[in-house]
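Problem 12. The chain below contains 306 residues. Write out its predicted structure in token notation.
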Amino acid sequence: MPQVFDTPVLLLLFNRPAHTQVVLERLRGIQPSRVFVHCDGARAHKPGEAVQVAEVREAVAGIDWPCDIQTLYREENAGLREGVYGALNWFFSEVEFGIVIEDDCVPDPSFFAFCATLLNQYAQEEQVMHIGGSNLGAHLTQGMDESYFFSKFTFVWGWASWRRAWQKMSLNLDHFDQFIAQNGIEDLSSNIMVQAYFLEKLRTTKARENNSWAYAWSYSILKNKGVSIVPRQNLVQNTGIGTDDATHTVSDDPRARLKASAMSFPLVHPPSLQRPPGLDTKLFYAAQKSKIRLVFWYLLHKLKIR
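Solution.
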């Protein structure tokens, strides 16, 4: 790790001071020279949340290494979708590339060097739009010779990207009907059940029936024929899934809290941008829905739309 870590880092924070302290300790280990912080405002109907948000901001004020800190602190609550979208617009208006970490995403120290290396490696490669840090299917890939692989799935528990990619983000899933008509979802997986499940997630995002910015980002990458990078092993542990203070991911899933491990360097790069055959579908089973649960979902979904 270089003495001065010059890759900009954006922290997405809200109301969890204990989680924030852990992430700040990880940042202290690399001491990035540029730190951007977004913290949403407290929700008026949530007693005590204003105090929690204030404690999060106090923790940020305690950053004690030499760095340039820029903050976007909201007085009112913008919500996950609009808040994160606005934060990322702000971040990428200020920097050409950078790393994004949420308060409950605890990266292994090697995650930062991994992102910094690949941000440089693929800076001019338009098709590469996202560098992910998590891999919940690491048991499938840890024996690979290469340090990472390319995928159509986009994991946002610790990630990095470029302004050139984020400029293609469509929060409202523009041209969605055209995307469906052109069978754009087929690029995701050859499995029709996986296609149907993910397409339903995109439809509910388009209709604003969920509060996700991440599915809109996945759509933007699919629509633009982009690919994401997934590390051979899991580099980021999510510590917020299923906890009492979780805002959205309240259901517990032990798979989602897979521990992070260290990446070895120098990185071994894949010979091309080609995706390993069949791996995306296996990754879906590992990270989103098991094969059995997907079959049940698909059958129920078919019955509902008849």
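Discussion. The domain at 1-103 is CATH 3.40.50 (Rossmann fold). Students who got a different answer should revisit the alignment rule from Section 12.3.
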